[in-house]
Structure formats: structure tokens, C-alpha cells
Amino acid sequence: MVFLTGSRVPDLDPPVTCQIHLSVEELLAAMTPCSADVNEIIPVERPEAGAYLCFTSGSSGHLKGVLCTHGSLVAFRKDHEVRLNDSLGRRIAQYMSPGFDGSIHEIFSALSYGATLVLRAPSQKNPFSHLGTADAAILTPSIAAMLDVNDYPRLRYAYFVGEPVSQRICDSWAGHKAVYNMYGPTETTCGATIKRLQTRRPVTLGSPNPSTRIYIMNDREQLSPLGMVGEIYLSGIQVAKGYIGRPKETESVFLPDTNLPHYGESMYRTGDRGYWNGDGELVLVGRSDRQIKLHGYRIDLNSLETHLKSISGCIDAAIALRDDYLVAQIQPAYMDPAAFTKQLRDVIPAYSMPRYILPVASLPLTSAGKTDYRAIASHDYGGSHGPVAIPETFGARLVQEAIRNVFGLSPGAVINMTADLFHFGGTSIQQLALSHKLSQERKYDVPIGVLFDCSSLQELAESLESLDESTEGNHAAKLGDLGVSPTEREWLHKYSHKDGSPAFNVHFACTIDAGIDAERLLESWNIILSRRRMLNSHYMIDADKCASIGYRGSPPRVREIGTVDAIQEINTLINPFQGPLIRSVISSVTSRRSSSCSRKSDCCTIMSHSRPLRSRTPRPIGTHPHPMKIAFWKDHLSNYEMTEFSIGRIQGRSNWSGSSSFDEIPDNTLTSMKEFAQAHNCTMHQICLASVSLALQYRTAACDIVVGAPYLNRHSEEDQNVVGLFLEPLPIRIRYPPTQHGSHEDEENVSFIEHVKLSSRDALAHAMPWDQLRTHLGHKAQLPNQSLLDVMVTYQEPEHVPLSGIAGLRPMSVVPGGAKFTLVAESTSSDMGGLMLRLEYSDECFGSKDITTLHKLIQIALQGIVGNREYRELREDLRPVHM
């Protein structure tokens, strides 16, 4: 292969795939006049022959040579608008670097159709001076942002390439010039789509060029429906043959066109994500490699940049990942970073806030005119907007000491008070611990909602100084070693009601590979069971019907049996008054000591109560909730009456009987949910809440339903060391449209998902112990019917699935019978990318046909919500399913 440059550069090494290095200057100097008769030269058409070799911009870190053919180049330039509106006498600026395929577009558009290629004069220091004498030019949006469109009155056509076009750039240029948005990677011969942009109209990529086919496909390489986000694949004659000298990389992205195989053409996997809108135009969402996971949160950097650019006065912005935090540069240089940061906190979640924000005159650019994210990430931000000196107040000292204690920092560690909890990698457990630590120091309850509402540690410090101290002294009561918490009492009451139900069994079952030493596993297991006294506990009821904890003489041990029926085992009830509250079983299909044994099966059913690991450590109980919380819940749940569902039957249950039904959510729907969550700053759980609520009440003109969400019942620092699940329900009331329910004025125009997000946030900010909430509201459960709510919605990420990802251990998908609530919608995301929806339902309220229909309703609701459908449209989408 040959490496061709404009001139010989001594210190420029050619790519490893090129054995020859030539320069245009050397070739011209070595040329001799041609003696042959030009008229005798007969051209030969070879459309499959290579026309030019171009190297990608290297965003992946490796330059890759792409060979494009004569046929692909000619096909690309058949359309007049695509080839820069060229014609005889028209002047086309040559601005793009020869190493960028945009220069191929400039050169061939001008010279193939009689136009003039306008070069920048070497004497001109201004690299844009020749644009003033041109009729058409290709620019990157980053370059266009630096130029004043009024400086180039002759320029009629501007083509933006290489980067997403912001609405601001579109509006500033499209009012003066004919502006086109062109999209297409190097691997597909310059361009695949073109769109004439208009001011104040949404920016899209338009429709495919006549010589290109575009597919939106999911992770299984299946076509995605209209409106669903997927990966962009390009197919047709313009697709290159692959990367020179890189067969493995070629094989991974240059694939056979499986959608139209009879053409015998390839399709290129771009790595870009997008969807088809209602007008049949392609909308670019961003690149897959611009989606990151930081401190456990998924962040779309492209979406985040859009929020930065929305701040008043910001001309342009770019954000990059540096180590384990984000950095940003904004234009113009005179912007006040402190004021910018304050505004930004109102539009983005705290975990996505950049640690440093640097105002600059212009963003760094690559040689191809694109934003240089590597330069942004590696910049020295020592003097940028970061840690700021904060007045040393009582609240500030309190927060700093609590932060050092909870996050294990040294006593002298400097705390950036302008930062937020997410800069410390704060998890929900650490937030609870911080809430408890601050409550201890202040001698009254510091609600976790205060932590959520404060956008910085300084704001948290100020809040602590202004909090009402009406709950002072409420940490005196202690649970002790034998006492039973309110959550345990409720569980015990439910488990004992009408002989109980296996639905309350918390279990884990898995298969174990033969490579694991079963003998040592059994020995270790028994050691653990013997060390934890609370695993040997049981409940006792005295004559006054008061519950307490008792302990058996000998610890529980693992049972070894020849064969085990996992379903039967997890459906076997445990007697809470005899104990132990944990049952462990290990079995093998053949003899456990047989050398031919290839697999062992381990089925473990766990029932544990909420007791500290160090059982003598007392923990506080009975703290009174803040009056503001009580007032919120009385208002939030006032006048609520459980209404009929659009499917199934609302009726009083007489027992715990129930079943479970599974359904797999398509990968493309899951991907769209994640991208929607990023774009709208909501959680996956909130999307699930919205879809289940809509599916249950889509026939009513207005939605009014209370749905439960699991809330971690860990109200103290000691609680963090408790073995046991004991999640409490957090009631979330969803009333939509809000105008029909006396809502605040600022809620009247919000979308359905935005309303669900606000309702979920408010409920979490005012969370209080379940037993206290029911007491203050005067609700009492009539088992097996629950009070306040009878529907639960949960969502689990892969990292929350017990023991997932351990080599040699494969969890078994088994569930106990029965139903804890009328309906539980449990969505579980796997580390393989799938999403499983389990519906646990009461047999008295739902039939099997109802549940089959409900699965369909939830899926359609999910697709409509992430497809930005209006509430009225969502309800209409669901009607045909249940007719």
C-alpha cells in the first residue's frame, strides 16, 4: 500500500500497512512530458477498482485505511444537492484537510462537473479567507460555531459534516444560507444522508441518499420499528470493502446485508444510534462509545452536552471523562463558571455534574475540524472552577466530619463544599448512613430527602442550620437483643395469617459446576451458619401476644440429600416459632463422592429476620417522623379510593394464593428505555412505574392509582449490618392529568413520565417507616388485603441480583407460589443485556388470560412512553389489545 501526502514531512511515519511513502510535490517534480497521443488512450471502466484510500479520524485510537471504489464514488455524487449544488462556473471552497474524506467530496464535486475548486492562498494567514469567494463550502459544526455567517455574503450553500449539528448552529446559519446536514462515515464513501435544515425546525439527518440503504437494528441485528432507538447500519454500493490489513476489525463491522441478501452487498455497522421519526427521517441520538457508566450511573455524554449548551449565554460546550470524573469546557471565555454551575444544577442530576468547568475562547479541534475530546480530558484544570473556599460555619464543619466518617477519608482530608455526594461515589447505602450520622450529631432527624434536594454540600450545610428541631431527643428508645421491630411484627403477622404462604420465602437456588469443591463448600457453609447467632433465632409470643426473639441450642446445618425438587423446597413453609429461620440444602444427581459426578445442585431457601449481625448492639427505634412528612402524606393520599383496574378484578382477597408469569422484554425496547432514561433524567424504575400504571388504568379518562415501590428499611447506621431483606413499600400516587386533581400550576403542562418522576421523587424525599405512615393515616390492613396499596413495581439492575457473575455458579429461575400483593410487576435486567418481566398475581383477582393481556399492555406502554407518545395517544395504543 502507498501512503500519499501533499509534501514530504521528515518526522511523519506512514501507517504500518503502507510500504511506500510518496508526496505530491515529489511526483510533480519527477514528471516528464507524455509522448503518447492522448487520443489513442482508451479509458477502461472498472467500477470495482479502488478510487482513493482514506484513513479514519482515529476516534477509536487506531488509524484504519478505507479503500473506496470508483463505483461507490460515482454513485454517491449522482444527486445534485449531494454534490454541493455544483455546476459550470460555480466556486467550491477546498477547506477540508486532505486526510479527511470531506476533501474527496470537495475535489470531485468541483472538478467532475465543471466547477472551480477554490484554494486558500499560501500568503493568506486567515484559513477561512477563501470562503468569501466561494459559492459552497463544507464545514464541521465546530468550525461553523467560530464563524460569523455575515462575513461571507457570497457563500450560498453550507454543508455541515462530521459532528452533530446543534439547534443553535442550525438557527444561526439557516436563516442566511442554504444549509445542509450531511451524515456518513468514511467507510461508506463520504455521505449516506442529506437534509436541508430550516430555522426553528428540529435537526434531523434526513432521508437516505438514492444510492444508500439505512437500517435501524437492535442488538440481535433485527429491524427496529418506527420510533425505536437502535444502531444505524448503512448498506449499498457506497459501502467500502473493509479496512486495509485489518481482517478482524473488518469482519466485526462489515457484514452481509441480511435484510436484502439478493443484492449481494455489505452493510456497515456504524456504532451510531438513532431512530426513524414520524416523517421518515433519521434522527441521530449519539454514539455508543459516548455512553458511559460513572459511579454506578449510566450517562450519555452527548445528551449532557445538550444540557450544558441550553444554559443562557453558552455558545458551545464539550464534556469528557477524565479518570473517574467529568470535565467540561464552555464558550465564551468570559462566562462566570460559578453562575454557570448554579444554573446547570437545575437541569441535570447531581451525579452527572462535571467536577471542573473551564470557560474558553474556543474548543480544541482535531486536524479534521472536530471537537478534540482527548485534549479536553487531558487539559490541566488546576485553576478551573473546582474546589472553592467556603466560610467555616457550624453546618459546614458538621457536614465535613460526617463525609470523612462515612466515606472513610482521613481526618485532615479537604472536602470540596461545592461538590455533591456523587463526587464521592455516594451509594444509596452511604446516603442513608450519612443521614443517620448527621441525625446523631444534630440530635434530631435529618431526613434523607434533604440530601436528595441539596445540590451541593454547602447547601446541605445551610439546610442543617435551618432545620426545625422539633424532633429533638427521639433517639432514646432502643430495640435491644430480644426486641422485635415493627417491620418484623408485620411480616410475622402476614406469615402466620391463614397458615402463611411460600410467597414470603426469600430464596436463592443455583447449580454448581463440578470444579467447585463441594466438601469445602459444605464445611464453610456450616461454619458461617454457626458463627451468626441471629441465624439460629426464632420468634416467641407471650401471654399478652407480644413478640420477642428466642434462640435455639444448636445452630442450623446444611442438609445433604440425594435429589432435590427445587420448586417443592422453596414452597415448603418455615415455622417461625420453632426456627431456625434459614434452611439450606445441597444435593447431587449422582453420589456426591462419585468421580463421575459432573454437576452439583444447591438449593437454598432463606427466611431471616431483621437482626444485627452483632446481636448485642442496640439500635434506635420509635423515632418520630418530621411534621412536614406527616403533612405531605396526609395531603398526598387524601381522598384516595382504590378504583377498578382496566383489566382483572378489584375484590377482597380471602387467601394468599397466586401464581407468577414471565415475559421477556425485547432488547430494542430495553435499549430505548435506557436511552430515554438518560435523555429525560429519569430512572428505569420510574419508566416501569409509568407503564404498569398506564396498563392498569388506560380505560379511564384520568389515571389515579397508588403503586408501591420497594424502599430500603435501614433507618440507622446499625441497620446497615442487618442480614435480611425487609423492604418496605413506598406508596407513590400517580394522578394524571394533574389539572384534574388540583395540582400546582407548574405541574399542569408536564408529560405523563415527568409527572411520574415528580411523584416518585416527592414520595422518596418524604419516606418514613411503613408502620408509622399507616398509623398517622389511620389505615389498618385487613389481611390478606393490604392497606393503601395493593400493587408493587420493582426494577433490578444486574449488580443487584444475588451472587450473579460468580464463576461456576449459575442461578436457577424458580419462584415460590402465592402472591404477597394483588399484583407485583418485577423487572430484572441481566448482565447479558436482557430484561425479564415477572408478574406475581392473585388468582382471585386475575385469570391467566388477564395476565397474558397485561404483559402485552405493559410492553406496548413501555414502547409508547420511550417513543415520546402523548398520554392520550398512549391510551389509544392500548385499547385494541384488550378488545
From TrEMBL:
Signal peptide: none annotated. Keywords: Ligase, Phosphopantetheine, Phosphoprotein. It holds the Pfam family PP-binding. Residues 393-468 form the Carrier domain. One of its GO terms (biological process) is secondary metabolite biosynthetic process. GO terms for cellular component: cytoplasm. GO terms for molecular function: ligase activity; phosphopantetheine binding. Belongs to the NRP synthetase family. This is Acetyl-CoA synthetase-like protein. It comes from Lophiostoma macrostomum CBS 122681.
